[in-house]
TrEMBL record:
It comes from the Bacteria. Keywords: Cell membrane, Membrane, Transmembrane, Transmembrane helix. The chain crosses the membrane at residues 12-34, 46-71, 83-107, 113-136, 143-164, 170-188, 295-314, 326-346, 380-399, 411-431, 437-458. It is a multi-pass membrane protein. InterPro entries: Poly_Biosynth_Transport, Polysacc_synth. This is Oligosaccharide flippase family protein. It holds the Pfam family Polysacc_synt. The keyword Transmembrane helix applies. It is found in: Cell membrane. The keyword Signal does not apply. It comes from Collinsella ihumii. Its main location: membrane.
Length: 474
């Protein structure tokens, strides 16, 4: 299959599987913010962030290694070896984690430790199952599993929070039950257990898996640190209420990140397969790169321009201040996503060491800036620190990726996007501080003036796609 078609197809399958539940979850923000206090929401976000930090370390990122190595497997014997060796490595990591958690409980009795352990195990199991499904080419099953996990999480959240009024415990319980249950269900449904065979274990192959995955751990952990350090410092310096406001403001960039995530899951596969194809992989990389930059820039501008119309509809209570930080966090997410594109090229070439070094540098920068700025300027400091860190990792990786592909810098296109960004941000904050309708109207016009022409090849196909969908529905 042509890699462009494969990329579009897989992205579409993943988007169909995940978009509906993500949209419903986002639209439930009024429920969450009306039932949960800012302190409760901040606590849930705090616990989830700690779990996200631990998952890559505990799982030794065997899901990433397994997926990449399964792409190169040519028969069932090789697949059994890959699955068996990766599962063995993850079991070792989980065992060490269990001992460490037990020791921490015996010595310090930390609050919410049990929830952290449960979240880590459930997510590691879900990621490992997903790696097998994607590595076997079962992208629809992978999308279905994530759809079920998300749908069950939403339903249980509504029941536990709105009906039973369990608050923090309800949200955490919903996540653990949904993710762990979906993973176990698909392990059985797809009969993945058949590929775990002690006789297929190969120590040298297991070492190769670990050697591939270990450099990715600092990368994953560093990204989590950049997403976590601001919240930890906010929690300890400004309190749980401020952490809750910041967590809600991050919900909107997370929508953008979710849209990109559908693409990224497919991109990691297509970028690797392009190396083994007869075509020009650099030309393929550049075509995707140009389209991605324009599209993600448009997402930042349009979401920013529409934020004053959307935020008040979806967010209740004492969270209104968070609207001020959304545009900065959207821009930070843009740089994070584009740097992920470069990461796909690195993993395709199995050059995972660069990914770790780039994000470690940026995580350290984020840490220093958060310590300096949050006590001084509060949530503005957290937002600026996150933007500076993601911009740094983006530029660093862009310089390093030239070792594998000469990507088009497109200085003219970047200059036009920067001017549009400056105009939209200026008009957005003019509206926030003055409430002038003209500022909001001009902000929306400026966003569309860039987004539509820049993405015209996509925009002009929308009517044809809509007609096709309507014809199928008749």
């Amino acid at each position: 299959m042509d890699e462009t078609k494969r990329l579009v197809k897989n992205t579409g399958v993943l988007a169909i599987g995940g978009m509906a539940t993500k949209l419903v979850s986002f639209l439930l923000l009024p429920l969450y913010t009306s039932v949960l206090s800012t302190a409760e929401y901040g606590t849930v976000d705090y616990i989830n962030t700690i779990a996200l930090f631990l998952v890559p370390v505990v799982s030794v990122l065997m899901d990433e290694a397994l997926f990449r190595f399964l792409i190169d497997c040519e028969n069932d014997a090789q697949k059994r070896r890959a699955v068996t060796c990766s599962c063995a490595a993850m079991v070792v990591g989980c065992s060490v984690f269990a001992v460490g958690a037990a020791a921490a409980w015996a010595l310090f009795r930390p609050g919410n430790l049990a929830w952290v352990v449960a979240l880590v195990v459930a997510q590691a199991l879900l990621q490992m199952t997903g790696a097998v499904l994607r590595g076997f080419g079962k992208t629809p099953s992978y999308a279905l599993m994530n759809f079920i996990a998300s749908a069950v999480t939403i339903v249980l959240n509504v029941v536990f929070i709105a009906v039973f009024r369990w608050g923090v415990v309800g949200m955490l319980s919903a996540t653990v039950v949904a993710q762990g249950g979906a993973a176990l269900a698909f392990l059985v449904r797809e009969r993945i257990w058949r590929y775990v065979d002690p006789k297929a274990f190969d120590a040298s192959y297991a070492v190769d898996l670990v050697r591939y995955a270990v450099p990715l751990i600092p990368n994953k952990v560093s990204w989590t640190i950049m997403n976590m350090v601001d919240r930890l410092i906010i929690m300890n310096v400004m309190g749980a209420s401020a952490a809750g406001v910041y967590a809600v403001s991050y919900k909107f960039p997370n929508v953008m990140d979710t849209v990109y995530g559908f693409f990224y899951q497919s991109w990691k596969e297509s970028s690797a397969r392009a190396l083994g194809s007869d075509g020009d992989e650099v030309a393929f990389y550049n075509a995707v790169y140009r389209a991605l930059r324009r599209f993600m820039a448009a997402v930042v501008l349009v979401m920013t321009a529409l934020m004053p119309l959307v935020y008040g509809l979806l967010v209740e209570g004492d969270y209104g201040e968070g609207m001020l930080y959304v545009p900065i966090l959207l821009l930070a997410t843009y740089y994070s996503n584009i740097s992920g594109f470069y990461g796909g090229i690195f993993t395709a070439h199995r050059d995972t060491g660069i990914m770790g070094t780039t994000t470690v540098v940026s995580a350290l920068l984020c840490l220093v800036l958060c310590f300096l700025l949050i006590p001084a300027i509060g949530l503005w400091g957290a937002s600026v620190a996150t933007l500076a860190a993601t911009f740094t990792v983006n530029e660093y990786r862009l310089a390093k990726v030239r070792q594998h592909a000469n990507l088009d810098r497109d200085y003219k296109g970047r200059a036009v996007a920067l001017l549009a960004l400056a105009a939209v941000f200026a008009l957005y904050y003019a509206y926030c501080y003055t409430g002038a309708p003209a500022a909001l109207a001009l902000c929306i016009v400026a966003a569309l003036a860039y987004s539509v022409p820049a993405n015209w090849p996509i925009v002009r196909r929308v009517p044809a796609i809509a007609r096709s969908v309507l014809k199928r529905g008749k």
